[in-house]
Amino acid sequence: MISSLYGAMESGLIYAIMALGVYISFRLLDFPDLTVDGSFVTGGAVTSIMILNGTDPFIATLAGAIAGFFAGCITGLLHTKGKINPLLAGILMMIALYSVNLRIMGQPNIPLLNETTIFSTILGWWNAWNLESIFMAPFQWLGIATFAPRSFYALMTLLIVIIIVKKLLDFFLRTEAGITLRATGDNQKMVRSFSANTSLYIIIGMGVSNMLVAFSGAMLVQHNGFADINLGVGMIIIGLASVIIGEVLFGKDKIVRMTLAIVLGAIVYRLIYLLALRVDFLEASDMKLITALIVVVALVFPNWLNQSNGKKQFKKSKARRKANEQKGEVDLASTK
Amino acid sequence: MLQLSNIHKTFYPNTPDEREALVDINQSLKPGDFVSIIGSNGAGKSTLLNTLAGTIIPDEGDVWVDGKNVTTFPEQKRASMIGRVFQDPMSGTAPRMTIEENMMISLGRTKKRSLFKGINKQVKQDFQSHLARLEIGLENRLNTKVGLLSGGERQALSLLMATFTEPKILLLDEHTAALDPSKEELILKLTRDLVEQHQLTTVMVTHQMEQAIDFGNKLWMMDEGKIIFEAEGEGKSELTVADLLQNFQNLRGKNMASDKALLV
User: What would the pLDDT profile of A43-72 be if each residue is shown by its tens digit?
Assistant: First the structure.
């Protein structure tokens, strides 16, 4: 259980990168982008084939992310220049990428277990500097060594990666270009009237979104130790679930808080996934259904909550006004 | 500053729905001119304004702004020279973003948007001093989401955002039509102040004749895609609503079609 908990945290952090990408398209650009299912695998495919051919894993990962960037740009182009409905543009790219990914990989499954990946490289450094003992020390000192993960290196690596990605994204979204990108999803007509090329912002935004998704895919194949053509099935729903869970549980107006909320949402999603797998009558294959249900609940529930909360707040403010009135009368009486 | 030569626009040509929206418009405005356009529904006022803004490309003729032929420029390219305020207060601002972020987007009209953090202390103070001129307290709410503002406040902000970067031409598309009378008065006052302060060349479309008479040094009356009556300078300042209605009747031999146009 303990090790699977850490495992859930690790994959949560990897999926968090993807969820941040989905956040850009789905929320900031208001573009429900199904390219994600394909570009996630594209990132993994490019990275794993390059690793297989002996490329440095860091460069391979970067190349995977860039491949995702171009995939996203094409979806953006289809929508802005080809005037194709966003959903359809995403579906078209998803289908097209399935074939492209198979071409890249050459086979439906690539094992990476004995290859040099980012994780194996970092494990090498980790052991060379003997960092494990530093992280283990507090656990042993408290006598809870059994609660420690088998190794900290993956968790720490991913933590650093996600912090860097989040910080970079926060910075980008608050630059002049970033502000305009966010406004594009909010009110295109207005952005155009202030001399910004909204098509360009949508294309670049979709590129950045899918770059993060592909980066996440590249990290996942290296973490799992294999790449598979079907890795991306339902990925968009996982991304949506993470975004929505994050927004509902931790969301705040500020962009810095939103990105943090989405990272946490992705981790919470993996924990829910873990718990669902522990239930006896559920099988791993039921997970897509459960994910879909999570999204449905997360989409419907906040509306109900808002309604009942609105009524509650109204009653409260009515009561307060009444109390104030009574107080006012008393004041009046006393002044008389 | 603005020159329209020989502008023609026909919608749905060669179909039963064919409609001549603009017929042979030839006009020019000098820097600092303020023209009010009136006319009934379907007279071509909005089409003319959209032709200036670039959302409609004319079938024939050229649009010149500041000595440049902008006829083929797409909307966003032209927008670097043209400021617009829309009829719907929701159209001119981005609701999920803060006031300062909205101001930042409008600041990007004149310069290229960079990959640096645009909002710094200096820029903020600048925004605040501009917002303070609206005198509705927005200068203290830089971090408020625009979606939380009222329609009048949003329209005032739109107006400020369209003007403070000093575009060559300001287009006002019935920008008070969706507001209640008190807010309308505020926006009209702000329009007068801001246009005067920045010396803007302005084209204002309105449904209300009184407004058209009150504002600007020029007046165009439109019907069926043509400018059927013009007044300028002294001739304009002596006009009354009755004169306009009489003129319209004399020229077209019918009453002004829209009830809304009579709301004076």
Answer: 999 999 999 999 999 999 999 999 999 999
Q: How far apart are CA A225 and CA A64, in angstroms?
A: 16
Q: How many domains does chain B have?
A: 1
What is the spatial distance between Cα A229 and Cα B135, in angstroms, rounded to a whole number?
61
pLDDT in tens, A110-132: 999 888 999 999 988 888 888 87
What chain A residue is nearest to B100 in terms of C-alpha separation? A179
pLDDT at B123 over 70: yes
**pLDDT > 50? residue B71:** yes
Spatial contact of B48 and B22, defined as CB atoms under 8 Å apart: yes
With CB atoms and an 8 Å threshold, state whether A193 touches B102: no
Q: Of how many residues is chain B composed?
A: 264
Chain A residues in contact with B84 (beta carbon < 8 A)? 193
Residue type, B97: M
Contact (Cβ atoms closer than 8 angstroms) between residue A21 and residue A162: no
The interface predicted TM-score (ipTM) is: 0.86
CATH number at residue B76: 3.40.50.300
Nearest to B114 among A175, A182, A191 (CB): A175
- Which domain range does residue B171 map to? 2-110+119-262
Q: Which chain B positions have a beta carbon within 8 Å of A171's beta carbon?
A: 117
